[in-house]
Automatic annotation (TrEMBL):
<feature type="transmembrane region" description="Helical">
    <location>
        <begin position="149"/>
        <end position="174"/>
    </location>
</feature>
<keyword id="KW-0472">Membrane</keyword>
<feature type="transmembrane region" description="Helical">
    <location>
        <begin position="103"/>
        <end position="129"/>
    </location>
</feature>
<keyword id="KW-0812">Transmembrane</keyword>
<dbReference type="Pfam" id="PF04307">
    <property type="entry name" value="YdjM"/>
</dbReference>
<keyword id="KW-1133">Transmembrane helix</keyword>
<protein>
    <submittedName>
        <fullName>TcpI protein</fullName>
    </submittedName>
</protein>
<dbReference type="InterPro" id="IPR007404">
    <property type="entry name" value="YdjM-like"/>
</dbReference>
Amino acid sequence: MGSAMTGAGHVCTAICAGAAALTLMGQDPMSPPGALAVALTVAGSLLPDVDTETSVAGRCLRPVSFTLAALGVAHRTLTHSLMAALSVGAACWWLSSSGLGAYPWWFLGGFLLHLFLDSLSSQGVLWLWPAQRFLGSGPYRYKRGHHGVYRVGSAGEALMVVLFCGVCVILPAVCR
Ligand SMILES: [Zn+2]
């Protein structure tokens, strides 16, 4: 594949961002409710890649990834679009107002974090899919006019993950 930011990168950034956000809000990430919020952030950050059968989400939700592949839905299109973000947001709003409190918002936060980080890659993300299309094909496809800051699977990606997590550790300490 080589076209997905590694699951490990998404897990690391989601854990750090979730823990940092909780700390900034004066909550303990190590408490049971805090740990649940972080776990939901991680789950949300893995969901967009359900559009590849080899990803963590693709393997956990095999019927979904299988169906998307059968329908010819390409990676970083439908599940990485503004439309998907709004749908997940609507589902989270509904779950939140039906008694789950703030928990669904952590899931949405992880989902949006994934789209944000993917959109910084050289390939980018089709926020406006289906109005927007990738040009080229396979590993050579690209988004017109897009310039990312890292290449998927490169040292640049690892560096970005480390920097992001570093900021997440430093920020709550500085803001205290
Ligand atoms: Zn992705």
